[in-house]
Specification:
It contains 1 helix and 7 strands, in the order αβββββββ. By secondary structure, the protein is mostly beta strands. It has a 4-stranded antiparallel beta sheet, with no helix packed on it. A 3-stranded antiparallel beta sheet has the order 3-4-5, with no helix packed on it.
Length: 145
Amino acid sequence: MSDLVRWDPFDRLASWPNPFRRMLEAGFPRSPWFDLGGDLALDMYETDKDVVVQIALPGLKPEDVEISVVGDILTIKGEIKAEEDVEERNYIRRERCYGSFSRSITLPGHLDTENAEAEFDNGVLKLTVPKSEDVKPKAIKVKTK
């Protein structure tokens, strides 16, 4: 009778070149600005009257962020600038990312984008887009005869 051997998909890594194997074993560096898909992470939820989009942008000023809506596509763009007073060779560890970012998402239909409002509070951008009147919930009174 033969013994059962547990299959390990990483057994084949032993035959790969050493630097590549070490990179896989250590894991890829991940920026706090981006999720695994490479997009800027955001939250979107709805209330009875609005759709709200929140995105954490610590260290940015309102004038560093550009928000646009074309049709039902919301685009948030900006740039995180690196600190100029520290020389590259003096870093012991550097994990914060710098550079341009952009995120586009599809908004639900029937929104009044003309009356959207954006505010910055403690590094969190909050975009509030009111729903059109035709999609807001309405109460209907039941009459008796």
